[in-house]
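Continuing the batch. This is chain 6 of the set; chains 1 through 5 are on the previous pages. Same settings as before, nothing changed between runs. Recording input and output for traceability.
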Amino acid sequence: MTTADTSKVPQSLEEIRANVAARYGAVAERVATGENLSACCDPGSGSSGCCGTTDERWDPITSDLYEAGETAGIPAEALLASLGCGNPTALAELKEGEVVLDLGSGGGIDVLLSAKRVGPTGKAYGLDMTDEMLALAIENKEKAGASNVEFLKGHIESIPLPSNTVDVIISNCVINLSGDKRKVLAEAFRVLKPGGRFAVSDVITREGLPDVVKESMALWTGCVAGALQESEFLALLKDVGFEHPTIEPTRVYTRADAAALLQGTGLDMSLAEQVNGKIISGFVRATKPGGAAATVSATTAARAAKPKRELSTLGQAMKSSGGGCGCGSGGCC
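Output for chain 6:
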């Protein structure tokens, strides 16, 4: 397996992918072999998945995301390999029969949860580039007995699905890991059906995050350094064609959380004060134009644009027609 570089973030998309794949592949292997099943944060390796590098088992980003009742019937390995920052399936308002795609599906927990929500007439796809995670996800699918689930290998910058085929795109703390976020959002827009919904959880930054934090590869693979600012995320969604983009904060990380994120990265721990409140987890929503809602809206607009007849004109028409309601001598329509 490729060894991850924990220094500064490389400029190449391929180098970023290699670092991310190495980090998350190692997590999948530990879960698959039964190592560290008590928590995803492994103090022995200094890795805590999606929270930077730390010697602590507690993780301010990935902890306490799912209710106990939600994960009933989901393999423990799927939960242990979850390195997300939210619970997109709980917020995406999935419906029976919908087709869902999870970008960066990891061990498969959000795909399996989505499959339960869309039911046997729906379909849940998971897309991941990491062989180890895909193997773990397929094993979890078999354990869960999920017949409406399919895992795909590929990159989120080039989704291996046809255009206009997906009702809802979800993702859990993955878009921030990409080195080409505009391409990710453009691909999401492409595969969504008209009227389709973009509903992802991600780490988002606020203005003022120190440059040294943004440049740390350990914090990039830890979902922080590569995160978009709120205004950048909303602007990119609009640029690629989405309508009504919004960000709903679900967690705002404190100084104590920042200290946990910085632990073991080699960065000055005094940065925690500057990071305080500058990192959030948020639920990002947007809609692809078109679909039933757009048809209703267009019909309403057409009716509103139809020329109106003055009451005096209507009165004259009624008298000349000989009818009582202005629609001819044959009677009232």
